[in-house]
Histidine triad (HIT) family protein (Agreia bicolorata), 164 residues
Amino acid sequence: MSAKAAVEVHCLFCRIVDGTFAASKVFEDDSILAIMDVRPVSRGHVLVLPKEHYVALSDLPLTLFIQLASLAHTLAANLSTAFPDAEGLNILMSEGPAASQSVFHSHLHLVPRTTDDSMVLSSDDPVAERDELDAAAARWRQYLDVGGQPEHDRAADPSAGGQA
């Protein structure tokens, strides 16, 4: 058995995809699947995943990620009709143990929210210093095409040749 096949045998989502484990399906086509989370944070908590096994977002082919995002968009657009009590929506992707990923098969969580639910995403964190934010932005930019930088940043960035 190949290493990939061994992983897929033990992957809960791969078992759902191949039909050996039951799931409440919301949507399915040749490449993606949406299922209800068996441990929902709220009513309507759905998972959107590729059928092929990928562990991390960076492993996904861009076209496949776009398909996942498109389905998430469609589900979000219909949230208030499907779940009239929902007042908002979180779309999350946890990658790695430090981010609380528990099934190591890349997937999006769509979590309908109400003001009195128990999920906590705090906005009480301290505001970062501008120099810290600028340094972090520069670290990200080094991996992007310079053409993708905001115009005002390109003029101040010597690596961009100072051209706006």
Notes: The chain has two domains: 3-113, 130-160. Residues 157-164 have pLDDT under 50 and may be disordered.
